[in-house]
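User: What would this chain look like folded?
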Amino acid sequence: MPLKRHTQELVYVNDIEGKITKINLTNMQGSYSYNQTTGAVTQIPPTGTANSGIISQDIKLYDHYTFFDLEASTDNNRYMYHSMEAGKGVKSKKFWLYGATGDYMNLNDKQVLPTKVKNVIFGVKDHLFPGFGNINSTPDKLAECKDMTGTDETSSTCADTGDRGWYKNLEDRKKVTAEPTLANNVVYFPIFKPNTALGCGKGDAYICAVDADCGYNRSSELDESGSTNKKNCYKVGTGVLSKLVIFGKKLYANISGETEEDKKKKDIVILNAIDTGDVNLRSSWRENF
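Assistant: Here's the prediction, encoded as structure tokens.
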């Protein structure tokens, strides 16, 4: 997912095995140091001498490295079929990538044991953005992120400066069906919960709304009925959801089955987006296909 910033361009590409690769297409030089306690990033001149905590390297065009690894395998079926979303967190002021997993070619997980379906939704920070470099000699994994499964907006728990990011486990073989959408510092994930007793693509459609910086669940704010269920994703109908689109203050998505929101418009979901008063920054944006 290419991001362009002035004369610099960094490309983040995710693959089906859950690896995110960062590619340098910039004219930058030198190295960068990262203070994990304060979150401060400092550029070091090309002639600088490597010290403790400093990444010393000659940055070249087309340099690349594995930025993050979800370790997808047949033991967890944690495959990434969809693109990521990106933006700067309003609270953290850091650049984030948001994504999720799920075998899109096997929506109902036929012939797969339920215990071998361990999908996640996640947000990971690039501490060195807009610089280029790798903090560790090996790619970071979910173990470096904070597990925010089961937390909601009343929780004081939050992914902090020292965490690589956050993730939430999806239960009951839930999986993402399109790339997430970032708006007002909330990330919206279209989720499918399969029903193996029915045919392919038969199941329930949910929207998981997550705080972009902290990773806690905000899905209950989509429910205007006043439900007290604050930890589960919000069910919007049956079938498979498309990518969620924000227009004005509304949230839109197509659905392959039938929506529970408006029986007059069975194949489209329309909800009020969560209004936080925050605005996420993108200096510019481009996607190539």
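The chain has one domain: 2-272. If you want, I can go into more detail on any region.
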